[in-house]
Amino acid sequence: MTQSQAKPAYLSREKEFLTAIAKRIDKDNGAKAIMKRALTGDDRHQRHIYPIVLPLLWGVRENQQDLWNFVASLSAYYPQTVRPEPKDFGHSCRGLQNSLTSGGTDRRFRALLDLSLVDIKTPVTALVRQIKSKGISIDYPLLLADLCQWEQPDQYIQDRWARSFWSTTQTEAQNS
Fold first, then answer.
1. Domains of the chain
2. CA distance readout (Å), 169 to 1, 35, 50, 122, 127
3. How many CA atoms within 13 Å lie on the side-chain side of 136?
4. What is the C-alpha to C-alpha distance for residues 42 and 46, in angstroms, rounded to an integer?
5. H/E stretch holding 14
6. pLDDT at position 168
7. Which residues contact 49 (CB under 8 A, 6 or more apart)?
8. Hey, CA dihedral for 48, 151, 155, 60, is it positive or negative?
9. Prediction pTM value
10. Tens digit of pLDDT for each residue in 61-118?
């Protein structure tokens, strides 16, 4: 089995969780508002999302539930459909970089790659806000899986994001 064949099974739990969140907030605008407010980082707003997310977090390690809550809140703020072929957050940020004339995205993305997991939420939220303003897609199941592996010693997630951000497609190279 190749890695591309294994990846969808790897993301199945994340997809299932985020699909359930999407269904819930589609039916309940109050739940959607609660999820969006949780992005402020205020502990009070964080606690308010528990009735929405905790029933869906069976089997998720307690030390990772905060990340699942965070990505669920991002997905409530900027809903996306699940893509058949996953693209990491570096790819989404590259789309943002390509849509802007300033180099601010490059600077913010470099800083993001050097952050520890405990400091990552605010910069990711800011980038998602910009990405939303440009209508660029985000693959939330893969973002969730990547953040859960963010602090691996070999930093393979950061390396993959960097390659996605700074790589050029054949079309981009021809246009240069």
1. 3-77 (no CATH), 89-169 (1.10.520.40)
2. 27, 36, 42, 29, 22
3. 21
4. 6
5. helix 12-27
6. 65
7. 34, 35, 38, 69, 72, 73
8. negative
9. 0.88
10. 999 999 999 999 999 999 998 777 889 999 999 999 988 777 789 999 999 999 999 9
